[in-house]
């Protein structure tokens, strides 16, 4: 991933230095397991632990000659270790190192992502509490529908992120998997107990059945979970973008004092953060598809997945981390304009209370069809009309006057009716 979107916490986990460190961690853990089972001298393992090291540039130099990254790595490590290095990688295949080490990177990334999911949840929760009673119009098909609150909208976002937290928590065990099973995964040249002990040392569990590689459905599930987080963030971002439109302007991204919106038009305050997040979500979805494509490998193993994963895993983890951090800041600093919300809700004299008027007429004995006709006629006369006032038209309609008192008509235009059950939703979320 480019530096622009790489934050140090996550970026560090996907450097060559960190990757090779996990490789070394796996190799040493296997040596320790072998020694515990009496298969290699304990003295040799102590020497390996003391002397084992690597140099990234030297590994890359060797790789240019041998055209094999794991061999290049092992060659460089043995340059530090010396004679005891013959006990490194015994009975193993490259994938034992690569896949187990990749799991360590994924687990570390998953932990960091989960932390920032929690941060976003708390930011949304606070904002939902703050705007619990901030009345605004709800929209369907982009058209004004009925009153709601901004806090209620945020409550939906909160519930969505809580589900992502649950999903990410559930897959923790699935991604914490390693393999030390040798060529084609049969343990022909390495004891299965080595795998068990190694995984225990590394905080992983052995893969149930590895076919020289850990089956890529595990990795695809992780990538889909990241794409899911991205999709929700995009939903929030698209909503903010729509609410920030000039003709709506109910919320707005924070705009710093020296920030510029346009190189040509000085008045512009563009929702660039939300637009950036929406674009990034597309990358996560694309990478999830690539991960699914990696599931079908030839026989017990090929390397068609390898080149893909070198790109999609660091990029998706780095982007997800960046998106969570940016979204958290976006929510915390979001500018909310209740007056504009009230203005928009009351366009054309409260046409958005049409259902309440219709149902009240039905309660008074008018058929639903007739009530619908009366209300629709008045609503459409007010709609998109300069000075249009639905409430005034309803109050002066003889058919309505026959059934409803002025007080009853007035009550139909009180948004408290639409909001009376929202506390139940807030209770579910402990807001």
- CATH architectural label of the largest domain: Up-down Bundle
Percentage of β-strand residues: under 5%
Total number of helices: 20
At the first level of CATH, the class of the largest domain is Mainly Alpha
Oligomeric form of this entry?
Answer: single chain
Write the CATH fold name of the largest domain. Answer: Fumarase C, Chain A, domain 2
The CATH superfamily of the largest domain is known as Fumarase/aspartase (Central domain)
Question: How would you characterize this protein structure?
Answer:
The protein is mainly alpha-helical and 431 residues long. It folds into two domains: 3-341, Fumarase C, Chain A, domain 2 (Up-down Bundle), CATH 1.20.200.10; 351-412, Orthogonal Bundle (Ribonucleotide Reductase Protein R1, domain 1). Helix content is 63%, strand content 5%. It has helices spanning 8-11, 16-36, 42-51, 56-66, 69-81, 94-130, 150-170, 172-175, 192-202, 217-243, 272-293, 304-332, 338-345, 354-363, 368-382, 390-395, 398-401, 406-412, 416-419, 422-428; strands spanning 135-140, 143-149, 177-178, 205-206, 251-252, 335-336. The strands form three sheets. Strands 1-2 form a two-stranded antiparallel sheet. Helix 2 (16-36) crosses helix 6. The radius of gyration is 30 Å and the shape is elongated.
List the main descriptive attributes of the protein structure presented here.
single chain; 431 residues; mainly alpha; Fumarase C, Chain A, domain 2; Ribonucleotide Reductase Protein R1, domain 1; 2 domains; two-stranded antiparallel ribbon; two-stranded parallel sheet; 20 helices; 6 strands; 63% helix
